[in-house]
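Notes from hallway chat w/ T.B., transcribed later so I don't forget. T.B. wanted the structure written out for a chain they're using in a teaching module, and asked if we could keep both sequence and structure tokens in one place. Agreed to drop them here.
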Amino acid sequence: IWVRIDALKAKLAAYDGVLPLPVIRNKKTVDPTDSTSEPVIQLETAMGAAVTLFDGATCVCVDRMRFLPVKTTDDLFIMRSDRFHLTDQYEMEDGNYIFPTVHLDARYYKNIHDFDTRFPYSVPSLAAANSVTIEGDWTFGRDVMMFGDARLPDQDEPSYVPNGEYVGPQGVEPDDWV
């Protein structure tokens, strides 16, 4: 968010130092990694709502070439993959940044600790993937590659994708498919 300091100073003066922003109510638990811990309510305001306070405010749409938010582990999966490259100046390299759609089973991948436990080496290659759907409790070996509309169904037990395997629309592909 960019704001002119003189305009912000005038708004703060007009509202006795507190901007009248709407309050957002988020239900959470005391320990976000433990869904059985005590429930709490987090109150917050969204700075983006401040746009409504300024006459003539303008919003600029920033494409994914310049800004890729990481709000979920689905986003983190893409960010850690070979589909995302940064230059030495921490800018996205030129290239085709059409990212695959990713859905990771929230029961097993929602928090960062669980995510990192299931990808102990790195996330699989997404170079040839259109989409990725992982259902159930899967852990990944080294150098796993996903292609097409990659899908791993829930096996109703912890499962493992061995080193160097290919995952596609049929799940872990048989070795003789090449």
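Follow-up for T.B.: DSSP finds four helices and nine strands in the chain. Might be a good example for the class.
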